[in-house]
Specification:
The complex is a heterodimer of chains A (about 260) and B (about 375). Chain A is α/β, with parallel strands linked by helices. Chain A contains 8 helices and 10 strands. Chain B contains 15 helices and 8 strands. Chain B has helices at about 5-10, 10-25, 35-40, 70-80, 95-110, 125-145, 155-180, 185-195, 200-215, 240-245, 260-265, 275-280, 295-310, 320-335, 355-370, and strands at about 25-30, 45-50, 85-95, 115, 225-230, 250-255, 310-320, 340-345. Classes of the chains: A alpha/beta (about 260), B alpha/beta (about 375). The interface of A and B includes residues 79, 83, 117 and 123 of A.
Amino acid sequence: MRFWGGIDVGSLSADAVIIDEEGRLLGHAILPTGRDSREAGSRAYAGALEAAGLTPGDVVRVYSTGYSRARVREAEGAKTEIACHARGAHALYPDVGTIIDIGGQDSKAIQVGKGGRVLNFVMNDKCAAGTGRFLEVMAGALETPLDHLDELAAQSTETLTISSICTVFAESEVVSLISQGKKPADIAMAVSRAIARRTVGLATRVGVSGRVVMTGGVAKNRAVVDLLAEILGAPVDVPDEPQIVGALGAALFARDERG
Amino acid sequence: MYDPFHEVLSDVRGTILKQARALDRPVIGVMPAYFPLELVYASGGFPVQLWGNRLAPSRADAYLQSYCCSVARSAMELELAGGADMVRGYAFTSLCDTLVNLREVYRRVVDKPTVELSIPVTQTAEARRNYLSSGLDKVNRGLQEMAGGRMTPESLAEASELYGRVRALQRRLYALRLERAGLVSNLDFYAVLKAGSFLGPEYYAKLLSDLLEKLDSMDPPEDSGPRLLLSGLVYDPLELHRILDRLGVRVVQDDFANGWRTVSKETLAVENLVEGVARYLFGPAPCCCLYNPENDRHDYLVDHARKAGADGVLFWYLKFCEPDAFDRPQLMKRLTDEGIPSSVVELELSMQNFDAIGTRLSAFCEMLEG
């Protein structure tokens, strides 16, 4: 049996997977990146190996992706996160047409063709608006853990609007709404709607077609996913573990390399 | 081989001062774009092209909105910070709203003379000539007052020959890049082009001739990275070309306002100056800032990319450049319809961190390579 690894080191999390010859996922790990992205990649890889019950010697080849892809010491090759998310999502959903990936510090919309080939893509990496960081800041303003933001939004009864695109100004709006006595649940929903609207704008630029799949950490926020589907007018599928799709794509590229 | 050009860029100020002394001409700052340098030279000035710089605006922000492009903001920052003290006056064109307003701000804030060549926005060639005939004399008078020389038929003919020769040599370099893709690195190519902005025409023509002579006998490397056409206003920041080189990209052609759109211009015809300037401004390459219904950008860009054998087109978008931004979605759609992949990177001249853009460029290359 032969095995391959993929490591995705992003701004907020380092994710790693181990796959077999059939592309089956044998183990994965998701860790915070922290200050040392090289170390984070190594730790995530070690975690994935452990989850798969393997040692480094069992692995034929490792590819890396993500912003720190060039710094991953275990990797023999690297691919951009755009190519890897397309490849990974295609492995999970062979009929995927559009990928929306919202990571910690950027968001992307990718048009995917046959075999997971990238046909077109757009990225927002200029500012925190429309990224995981935006949600993180808003969750902080609401004094709510990030992973509880969607549960809070689910209790919303009043429609509020966050109009600022800038994260800093949007945070001020949230603080202002809190001081007006607005319910945190309604504010959480307004925050989710703001990020969904911005993401739809991005996706529309690249063109939405076929099955829509959302990847990245923000895909774990059910409120954002539902709002995205509502505004797009199309269902949005989310893999069981949306954070490892990039790492999965990297592992598949590693497997597909000859030798 | 490229050292003389890189040395110019590593000391632009020193270069300009040295060249001005050697030429014994006052420095005239020429703002983007398409102002015929010949008119400045024929008036006794040493035209230096100011396409912005890497200064982060601070003083300029007192006069310019944050949505002005970094070319305008950094050019003004240079002036206000005292870095353009050798510039005696400025020549503007009415290329875009920002530049028109920038000239007005300079007239009030900067104690230096300015002239503006108003670019006609008219339907026909005849209307263009009529428009220019009413304003060109004023521009020429202003240049002569600024530079202290006298524009004569002889000085015009000399300037026309010199700058015509420079552009002809630059076109040879473009042709060489196209024929032997990869022979000149992208960084070196644009360093050669940019150095010309700060050199006297005769001196620059000599450097170009020497370079071309050496390149003539050289073969390109065997690498076969994607062939790209770049389109935008300004080929800066040069750091991005270093990234393209690292990715193995071979830029085979461009559509930059300070690149091919200017380099492709024939020798300025000076016998009938109004006619000559009209032709110079509007031909042969179209521009997002020039209104010319007879020269469609969509057809041109598709044809330009096809002739260059480009695998894709990369739009090099200078943030807040409205004319470029308005044109781009339609241009990208047309390219897609024609089966030519395209992508866009958004830039500012003062940017320091290129990681995110590097990822976009890599992704675009991966996309082209399938």
